[in-house]
Amino acid sequence: MMAGVGTLLAVVKADCPTCTLVRPVLDRLDVEIVSEDDDAGLERSWHLGIDTVPTLIRLDDGGAEVERIVGWSREQWEAFTHVSPLGDELPPHRPGCGSKTQDPSLVDELRARFSGSVLRSRRVDLAELEDEHEAMFERGWTDGLPVVPPTEARVLRMLEGTTRAPDEVVALAPPDLVECTVEKVAVNAVMAGCRPEHLPVVLAAVEAACTSEFNMHGLLATTWFSGPLLIVDGPIAERIGMNSGINAMGQGNRANATIGRALQLTIRNVGGGKPGVVDRATLGWPGKYTFCFAERTDTNPWDTLAASRGVDGDAVTLFAAGGVQGVVDQLSRDPESLTRSFAACLRAVAHPKLVIAFDAVLVVSPEHARIYREAGWDRARLHAELAALLQVDGSDAVQGAGGIAEGLPAHLAGVTLPKFRDGGLLIAHAGGGAGLFSAIICGWASGDVGSSPVTVPIGT
Known about the structure:
By secondary structure, this protein is α+β, with helices and mostly antiparallel strands. It has helices at 17-28, 39-48, 74-81, 107-114, 132-138, 152-159, 182-192, 199-209, 216-221, 235-239, 254-269, 305-308, 335-346, 366-375, 379-389, 394-397, and strands at residues 7-12, 32-35, 52-53, 55-59, 65-70, 72-73, 93-94, 97-98, 169-173, 178-181, 227-233, 292-294, 315-328, 358-364, 391-393, 416-418, 425-429, 437-445, 454-457. Helix 7 crosses helix 8 (199-209).
């Protein structure tokens, strides 16, 4: 080898026609052959970041890479090796083949094998004949539906969705107040069926759920129906394919379904919030599997829910949701009439005679929202009009009034009270373009005795 050339490496694989073509040339050179056809060569190729074979690499005396070329080009190889003539019997140029390290079926496995895994979670080995899905059911890791096995390769791939370190503590997960790391959230996001780009939303949701204001422990322990609702705002919702339109609260959208599920699984598997143990709901409801949707932007007459709560851009709002009540009004064509319909239905949240104790979310659909947009009503106007209509005469709401034992203490007779506490009614926008239907999402006990909505920004 001529002076100044340094150490040469050639990365090849057996089933690459170009690698076979240049083998006589490599035999003439003082070059170390790295073959991707054995584990040692494949690992070295992975660490070298090889995309294409053959790749010719020059190393300096300290073993650091100086330069590389890919494929076969007689002119490039002669200049690179300082050997000429070289390969006169070969065609002047041939492209290379994809490296085995780039094989989609191997990428995750190779990362797990060769990256020097930073994962700290306990490994669970299953018996050869043990069904992995049944094993996870038996160990109590599921929500009653099958989950995706969280292999090391899948968790490492999930972690590519965030810039946060795997061992960073996201929150203390209730009810057991266990340190919940980014890695632990990623494990449960894999199980829920998330994609890596969903992980930042799940991380933000876990942070919000574990605040004292949201009170996830209390939400688990209550005998009421409720579980966390996630409402996502900002460009990230569209970027990761969330549904804010037709069937926004229903099935069929992977991002909506798995992000909400990942939060629930994290609280269950990390924090210990298992149904029948800490989770004491009398009846529960399907939203406790997952309840997550995005706000619609193209038909929204107002700023986003998150922005109205002081958080611009990508954000998630958590609400302790206890069920959905439909609102039908197909005849109102002015905001005053429609607002009275909303107010009449909102009075029934939890119970028509109970005030302040429960929060709610009013989800205004596009056809109903158009009425407010055309009338020029902003969010503040709608809130104000609803508040005026939702004043409750204590004489009608005390215990025994109307022949109903449930109600307010007798000393509140004659006192006018608001149906919702200040900030206890949220207004969001979602849904398909057809259908004069909106929705009310009932909350759980509000404020210090229960839960307050929490809005946090979504990071990276």
